[in-house]
Amino acid sequence: MAALWRSYQALMSKHPWPVQIVTAGSLVGVGDVISQQLIERRGLAHHNVRRTAKMMSIGFFFVGPVIGGWYKVLDRLVVGGTKSAAMKKMLVDQLCFAPCFLGAFLGISGALNGLTVENNVTKLKRDYPDALISNYYLWPPVQIANFYFIPLHHRLAVVQVVAVGWNSYLTWKANKM
Question: Would you say the pTM of this structure is higher than 0.85?
Fold first, then answer.
């Protein structure tokens, strides 16, 4: 395991952006597999591989680039590594970024699932408030620790590891009709 971690860090040093994106897409996919197998209890015979592929594509093309880019912007908006700076970053992240990101994630998921605009809006009205409240239970303490202890180039990976559980919830929420 230590060798695998060292290899990951070496790749991250050489190619941080692509590694962050691949990590995010892969872990969103893991979250969907967990959702289908442990939450929805579909069993392997009824696993929806197409859905997992859709969720991974959201991870590769939306989650990874957007969150990775956001952390770079946030580090320029709120400078420093103090406890106070970490708290400010968490507040900006949770009050400005998280609500928009969550709505976009759910909307994109609905669109990829073939929902009409009207049905997608209805689904967002139904699911978004609960998802945002759940977000506020999990992410503030994670983000304070992330912004205080973790170097910028590892933040997306740390968040995505924690997010395996969150992604399981989100993919269940996004695919619940």
Answer: yes
